[in-house]
Amino acid sequence: xxxxxxxxxxRVLVNPLSNVFQKKLTGKGMEALWVNFVSFFLLxxxxxxxxxxxxxxNYDQRFWIICTISGIFCALGxxxxxxxxxxxxxxxxxxxxxxxxxxxxxFGIFLLxxxxxxxxxxxxxxxxIGSYFVLDTLxxxxxxxxxxxxxxxxxxxxxxxxAIEAIFIKKVIQLSxxxxxxxxxxxxxxxxxxxxxxxxxxxxxxxxxKTNKSxFGIFLLQIICVGLMQYTTNYVFDNMDVSxxxxxxxxxxxxxxxxGYLAFNEQKIAMKLLGSVVMIGGSVIIxxxx
Length: 290
Hints:
The protein contains 14 helices and no strands. The chain is mainly α.
């Protein structure tokens, strides 16, 4: 129980911290897809030693197919997330993640025929009310015009892809264990992040030249946070239902808003905090009682 509590607290704290370092790196001229790839690549190198003790021959074709699908959504989700952070305020991008609960309801209606009850609808209303306070701080205010902003579009795509990824990560954990699932998350994330890097013709040599000691230091801090974030996520998924875990992870939204103010001097924090608390309440209602 103590380990699980520690894992949840660590996950809630390091996820926003990783977002801070990702935003700092893109602010120094690093392309989002490059930041994404380097993070996975360096984590993959660190996984080589623990990977030597894994009996890889015990895993069948189904396991590797699920790992591949998870890796694709992982690379896409994290790529869009870093891209969103490079263009938007941290204190805006964090709270938007609460819409993941609404996305799950929509998928449930059309794919599973699940009609939300009173709790589900109440949660949706709370998320919308909370997002009014958060998004109304932008020039477009709370309106459809917001979706013209690239960072909002990127953040929603990141949210959708990471929500799908979570399903497959849980399956990988069930078929293996926490450490093995973390290793394949890093490896497959690196492979498909490299594919995206090449697909969008990112100049690797130019970015290597830009990566001086100060930038590399930020990269190291970022991969430490990303590594801790994913390992603790896997541990929590292994010890409790995903829906309960996702509800608890929403607490990182408040940390994200506070860090947006402390690290980047983002404004109108009181409104964003109020909106975040309301949105978290809506997400918790949907995930736990919907």
